[in-house]
Amino acid sequence: MLYLVPTPIGNLEDITLRALRILRETDLILAEDTRTTGRLLAHYEIDTPQRSFHAHNEHAVLNSLLAQLQSGARIALVSDAGTPGISDPGFLLVRACREAGLPVECLPGPTALIPALVCSGLPADRFYFEGFLPHKKGRQTRLKYLAELPCTFILYESPHRLQRCLQELAEHCGGDRQACVCRELSKLHEEHRSGNLTELQAHFSAKPAKGEIVVVVGGKRE
Ligand code: SAM
């Protein structure tokens, strides 16, 4: 069995009892960064062995992991924060397991996009998750696509790219489109700043953002 185990996105209390039990009971934990996961495991006094599993080795270790799973190992996959497979490694391993007929289970748990969407005050009945925009090739195509969506959409962004992101969103969607910048979810300096794209761009130009960021943008009005 492969378990995908969501881990806290800031507040260490945001982990389920089941996630802790699975991390304790599995034979191996695949971690994006073993030092980061090591701190979480130490906090909860879990001593399950870890192995690195990240964007740079996921192809190379795939076959040996499938062999371990086929011989009956119980393996948990975690990322540095949130749900594995959501803008984090996981997809390749899950697809390979499913193709090989191996059971996969994803525990419900933390992810940054849902609290950002729900707190944004923008319609949450339908939404589109973009994740990170490409930095260069394909960026304008994605922005054009997003600008036409009739539902709320969600982007992950780093603080030093936020101003450019808001500026380009304003160019494509119009400066009066409503949005919300959600920072540091579940952490001490959590902030949700709502406004139109022009207002948000002006605010974050005057006061550059720090920390981790989710940008939620309202859909195009019909
Ligand atoms: N797997 C994660 C999830 O389920 O949300 C996402 C991992 S992705 C590499 C990291 C990005 O998620 C950050 O750059 C930021 O955009 C967003 N993020 C993660 N934690 C956050 C937090 N506490 N507050 C705001 N955004 C966060």
Number of DSSP helical runs: 8
> Structural class per helix/strand content?
alpha/beta
CATH hierarchy class name of the largest domain? Alpha Beta
| Corresponding CATH superfamily of the largest domain | Tetrapyrrole methylase, N-terminal domain
Strand content: 15-25%
Oligomeric state as shown:
single chain
Offer a few descriptive terms.
single chain; 222 residues; alpha/beta; Cobalt-precorrin-4 Transmethylase, domain 1; Methyltransferase, Cobalt-precorrin-4 Transmethylase, Domain 2; 2 domains; five-stranded mixed sheet; 8 helices; 10 strands; 21% strand; elongated; binds S-adenosylmethionine
If you had to describe this structure to a student in words, what would you say it looks like?
With 222 residues, the protein is α/β, with parallel strands linked by helices. It folds into two domains: 2-106, 3-Layer(aba) Sandwich (Cobalt-precorrin-4 Transmethylase, domain 1); 113-217, 2-Layer Sandwich (Methyltransferase, Cobalt-precorrin-4 Transmethylase, Domain 2), CATH 3.30.950. It contains eight helices and ten strands. It has a five-stranded parallel β-sheet, with helices on both faces. Strand 2, helix 2 (34-43) and strand 3 (50-52) form a beta-alpha-beta unit. Helix 6 (139-148) crosses helix 7 (162-173) and helix 7 packs antiparallel against helix 8 (197-206). The protein is elongated and about 55 Å long. The mean pLDDT is 97.
